[in-house]
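S2.1 Query sequence (Carboxypeptidase N catalytic chain)
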Amino acid sequence: MSGLLSVFLHLLLLFKLGAPVTFRHHHYDDLVRTLYKVHNECPYITRVYSIGRSVKGRHLYVLEFSDYPGIHEPLEPEVKYVGNMHGNEVLGRELLLQLSEFLCEEFRNGNLRIARLVQDTRIHIMPSMNPDGYEVAAAQGPDTSGYLVGRNNANGVDLNRNFPDLNTYIYYNEKYGGLNHHLPLPDNWKSQVEPETRAVIQWIRSLNFVLSANLHGGAVVANYPYDKSLEHRVRGSRRAASTPTPDDKLFQKLAKVYSYAHGWMHHGWNCGDYFPDGITNGASWYSLSKGMQDFNYLHTNCFEITLELSCNKFPPQEELHREWLGNREALIQFLEQVHQGIKGMVLDENNNNLPGAVISVSGINHDVTSGDQGDYFRLLLPGTYTVTATAPGFDPTTVTVTVGPGEPKLVDFQLKRSIPQITELPVQHLEAESYQSKYGPG
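Output structure tokens follow.
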């Protein structure tokens, strides 16, 4: 009996020592230690890297999960989570640290679902995009923190209002014609944004991300683009103006996947607000300019949604365990959504990779491009589509493909070089040339 009691007390002590390590708030140094702890426990499937530094010099760390960390494998999609963009919205930060530990632990335990996810997906987790703001908010304490204390970066800038505004251009192009994807940035864009924003832009330009979510707080809802309203609102008017993307149905599905896998988001009634199915078009909620969500969609191949995860921006430590249980399945299911639609290689007639080839889907006015290794990914709902691949100097190729609800359909394209067309001279001109060659001019 004394032996059993001893074992019980030992386990109880371990629980008391272990539980707070996971379900607690992490300052910057604690965050860094946690990321490297996960890497040390799963060295063969993880990599810790920095995409840059904050205003105050703190690294913007990312933890990568992959069966080949640091390497893009053709046809393996890239997906990312970004947390703590607003420094005082901290639940996402803690959930992403917990997700990192969970993925590592479950992989080591032989969880087949997690093992398959890691093997088939390159996952990038950034727990904090605004480490400077977090430290300001954390210094206030979770119970006394003002609603906006720590929201901005150290220069007082809201990072989710700091990306180049591409919505203005896309709304013009949708009306008058022009590019529907990969809109260019102004030449001086680097001087117009904060260090954290610049680092993220360079990051998402360097990797061919397919799917993404950024984690916020202050509400409980899955928000999808566009965030910026097409309509100019009259001052004082609170009329909602939904502004859908060409991929609106797909974005609604992605948002619902998270909402319905979440413990209570899908109920709709949260924080005094009501959102049917727990989702909302960003612009129909409130218009937001220069946000990260719209920027991903308009400048890269990445489809991003915004997850508002808690009524309390800085929830007490004792609520973190419950929040983790409410979000765990949703975080995994959302990652799995990157495996849908179509994907494939774009090659020339000599089987060389064709980067930058444009993949167009008839009826959806938003194209994607192939990556550096010629592979492309196009998220699509189940259905039958007409898909065209084009590249400069090559003849376009069009196929009809039926997409199912399961794994993505593999659709490769092999493009042939265009043969320059010889312009025929008019018959009268040819006759004149013949006359002049025989009798001379005049």
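The radius of gyration is 26 Å. DSSP finds 13 helices and 18 strands in the chain.
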